């Protein structure tokens, strides 16, 4: 299993610091688990392959391109600093 852990500062609360961990078996496009924590509370979930395909279709985006954008936003946050905004609702 591969994992990536990144620190994020959501635009909805720029003073807050969250840690985002994404884990996957084969590749991000086949499904992945997500854990978000602010150091006091933690939230977890799983995004299935069906969820990924549905979201790509909803956005009228090629699935492969959508998975590449997911990788940039969720796994390579430091490389993509300023390009993606996170909102914690």
From TrEMBL:
<dbReference type="InterPro" id="IPR053961">
    <property type="entry name" value="XRCC4_N"/>
</dbReference>
<keyword id="KW-0227">DNA damage</keyword>
<dbReference type="GO" id="GO:0010165">
    <property type="term" value="P:response to X-ray"/>
</dbReference>
<dbReference type="InterPro" id="IPR010585">
    <property type="entry name" value="DNA_repair_prot_XRCC4"/>
</dbReference>
<keyword id="KW-0539">Nucleus</keyword>
<protein>
    <submittedName>
        <fullName>XRCC4 protein</fullName>
    </submittedName>
</protein>
<dbReference type="InterPro" id="IPR038051">
    <property type="entry name" value="XRCC4-like_N_sf"/>
</dbReference>
<feature type="domain" description="XRCC4 N-terminal">
    <location>
        <begin position="17"/>
        <end position="88"/>
    </location>
</feature>
<dbReference type="GO" id="GO:0003677">
    <property type="term" value="F:DNA binding"/>
</dbReference>
<keyword id="KW-0234">DNA repair</keyword>
<dbReference type="GO" id="GO:0006303">
    <property type="term" value="P:double-strand break repair via nonhomologous end joining"/>
</dbReference>
<dbReference type="GO" id="GO:0032807">
    <property type="term" value="C:DNA ligase IV complex"/>
</dbReference>
<dbReference type="Pfam" id="PF06632">
    <property type="entry name" value="XRCC4"/>
</dbReference>
<dbReference type="InterPro" id="IPR009089">
    <property type="entry name" value="XRCC4_N_sf"/>
</dbReference>
<dbReference type="GO" id="GO:0005958">
    <property type="term" value="C:DNA-dependent protein kinase-DNA ligase 4 complex"/>
</dbReference>
<dbReference type="GO" id="GO:0033152">
    <property type="term" value="P:immunoglobulin V(D)J recombination"/>
</dbReference>
């Amino acid at each position: 299993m591969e994992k990536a852990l990144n620190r994020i500062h959501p635009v909805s609360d720029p003073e807050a610091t969250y840690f985002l961990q994404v884990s996957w078996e084969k590749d991000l496009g086949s499904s992945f688990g997500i854990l978000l924590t602010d150091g006091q509370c933690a939230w977890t979930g799983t995004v299935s392959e069906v969820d990924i395909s549905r979201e790509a279709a909803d956005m009228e985006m090629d699935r492969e391109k959508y998975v590449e954008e997911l990788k940039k936003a969720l796994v390579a946050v430091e490389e993509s600093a300023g390009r993606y905004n996170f909102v914690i609702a």
